[in-house]
Write a structure and sequence with these properties.
0% strand, elongated
Length: 137
Amino acid sequence: MEGKKNIAIGFLTMGFFMLYGFLLIYLRDFAPDKLDWVNSYSIGKHFESRLAHVHGNLFSVLNIIIGFLLIQFSNRLNQLDKISWLALGGLFMPLGILSEVYFGLPPILVLLGAISMTTSVLWLGFAFFNLKSFEEK
């Protein structure tokens, strides 16, 4: 059943990035060097970490929505598996941001994830645009 994995992984990833939000709250309000963290609000690791948190939750929600739509329209859409895998590949973007922040890795995962999610959303959009109603079949 295409879409089931998108929903499951979407919720699991959302849970992870929600927990990561608690870490960001700790760093902002309770960490010993919280003033340094707050003062770097729009630059550096602070900014990148917030980008990962926001995009992680956004891409999780997109996977849940895409998964639901793939299940609901499974008998009327083509190439569901490709759309499904591309949407899941989009999760490399926020994970890539985190790998940059914490491990200094290059941004290749960010780019791959962004391209993957954008492709899946556009592909699904065109698939729905070309969807024939039941009467037209």
